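Researcher: Next entry in the queue.
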Amino acid sequence: MPVITNIEDLRVLAEKRVPRMFYDYADSGSWTEGTYRANSSDFQPIKLRQRVAVNMENRSTATQMAGTTTRMPVAIAPVGLTGMQHADGEIKAARAAEKFGIPFILSTMSICSIEDVAANTTAPFWFQLYMMRDRDAMAAMIERTRRAGCTALVLTLDLQVIGQRHKDIKNGLTAPPKPTLANIINLMTKPRWCLGMAGTRRHTFGNLVGHVKGVSDMRSLSAWTNEQFDPRLSWADVAWVKAQWGGKLILKGIQDVEDARLAVQSGADVIVVSNHGGRQLDGAESSINSLPAIVEAVGNDIEVWMDGGIRSGQDVLKAWALGARGTLIGRAMVYGLGALGEAGVTRALQIIHKELDITMAFCGHTDIRNVDKRILLPGTYPVAGLAMG
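Model: Structure for this entry, 389 residues:
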């Protein structure tokens, strides 16, 4: 077993252990993948100010996200098909998050269902909803979320139409997956993954199959989803979801100041600055570069988080310094899960927390709640300007 010291180590191991079609599904972007790469690379020019002769004892990275106390300003992002990275993947990731003390968000397009995760965890989790044309199905899913004890609903706004991801097409990633010769040969090189999947009954989209009218298997699910993502999504639909749910509402997929202001008017509790991990509009600005203008515009009116490109605790600290009161990690979690299952997710969280804690200390702080952009070297970080507003 290699020594795991950073998220990249977990990525390398996950690439070896997860079938190509599912690894590529998580580790890819749309079209040229330019925005996908920028989400991570745009953190690098941001430089930190090192401070010395400061008492670094009794440090705390604890804060609150949407009223939930969390060990660090990090939650696990909703990731579709997490249960195909590792058998029972959503349950394992949720357990790791619960034990570590951070929130977990379950995707609509998960393999393990809302009920599966609720039955195998004790801490309340959050649920991510895609708006579908079938409003009865949406209302039923929101009610299932409520019965499962979820304490927040995350409505993703940037999937009205689906961006083209070349790798998924080339790999034959469909529902059900195409059993091409290349896929079969690749599966033969992943005995650990195959053994795990043979030992679980969870192989389909658990939140949809058997719960939505007319969807009884993967083939009927494919036909349903192809026509269900709703291109007509509007702020009136956001109001409908808010009324149906009645609890904490988080809007994910905000990249523009004007949309951020509309989100505040909608009555949402939190917005997430996100470009869907670079999987939708290729050529969009990176999340970290979009963050400052949105914080400046609405940060006093609504809780602002960011998602996209975080691969270290230093990235978390930089996002916090620029005004994000929370961050979401998707791929960092997926790499850990694909590499080592639940233990791998725990390792990813440990790595990020340690990097966050030590970097904060080097910047002269012992409580993350006191950290702001003064820890950043002037001229190295994105600034909200008139052109961005």
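Model: The CA atoms of residues 77 and 145 lie 17 Å apart.
Researcher: Noted, moving on.
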